[in-house]
Amino acid sequence: MEMFLMAAAMSLLAVAVSAVLFAAATRDAHPPAAASPAKQAALEPQRFFASAADAAPDAAAAPVTDPVPIEALLLRIEQHIRLEQAAAESFLDTPSGQSLHSRTTSRLVN
To answer: From CA 105, how far away is CA 96, in angstroms rounded?
Structure first.
């Protein structure tokens, strides 16, 4: 019984010391920044795969591309969805390993 009480007392002491050390280590670990990263990201213009620092410094050197019409994008997405649904239905009709891993004829990545 004395061994059990000794182990319990040592465990409680170890937990208390760990809690004190953890509290001391995490106190003021992150000083308040001027603006949080979420607010900075919301204020920056949206860019895909590049930040404002990665953007071309000379706007005249960057190639100008015409934006793709929304209707064309929607049409391509709808076609892809139809092809994927047809592939899923054919798998449900005759399930096999080959039909599960076969690619559709869609131009978009599966």
So the answer is: 19
